[in-house]
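STRUCTURE:
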């Protein structure tokens, strides 16, 4: 399949996975220079991106041939169409595109108005998403009020250090102790978690 060439059949399948109307979309976060910088992909990048998404899904269990077919159709779309689908797509499309190696596509999912707290909670624990996605989750006021989301972010080794350290004061003491012993997270995050839990000790 040539890069970005959407057949009529593909377009029909993709259309089945769109649930947000143009009127509900806020594209103000899409800075023009950011777009231009991210819009070109080599065939090698496309192939690697496709394989990485399939591998990430396989880590979570069996992936049906239908699912792989949908992943292939989506990942062979050009960047612009993938961004559009990320912002407008349904839960199934969001689950695929959140793992896209292209940051602008993955962050498009976070800007989808239909994304649920449950999805964000899962994303906050993923080790196969772009750090920028986790940073944006941590900056969102609504999601920052959800304890399961911030707890997952604090424990996720992929969460940028500044984001993790910023949310640690809101983590419960017993969870801070667990983070301070967690060898997967960075040394700085472990130290800060230990410090905070010690300060709270009676």
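SEQUENCE:
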């Amino acid at each position: 399949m040539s890069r970005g060439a959407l057949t009529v059949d593909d377009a029909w399948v993709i259309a089945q996975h769109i649930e947000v109307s143009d009127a509900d979309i806020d594209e103000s976060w899409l800075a023009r220079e950011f777009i231009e910088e991210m819009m070109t992909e080599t065939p090698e990048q496309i192939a690697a991106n496709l394989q990485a998404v399939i591998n990430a899904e396989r880590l979570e269990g069996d992936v049906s041939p239908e699912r792989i077919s949908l992943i292939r159709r989506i990942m062979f779309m050009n960047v612009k169409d993938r961004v559009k689908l990320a912002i407008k797509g349904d839960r199934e499309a969001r689950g695929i595109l959140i793992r896209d190696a292209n940051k602008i596509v993955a962050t498009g999912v976070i800007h989808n108005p239909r994304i649920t707290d449950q999805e964000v909670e899962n994303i906050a624990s993923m080790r196969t998403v772009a750090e920028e996605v986790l940073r944006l989750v941590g900056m969102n006021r609504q999601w920052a009020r959800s304890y399961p989301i911030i707890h997952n972010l604090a424990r996720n080794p992929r969460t940028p250090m500044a984001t993790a350290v910023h949310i640690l004061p809101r983590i419960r003491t017993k969870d801070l102790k667990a983070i301070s012993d967690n060898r997967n997270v960075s040394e700085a995050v472990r130290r800060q978690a230990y410090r905070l839990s010690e300060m709270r000790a009676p």
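REMARK: Residues 43-59 form the longest helix (17 residues).
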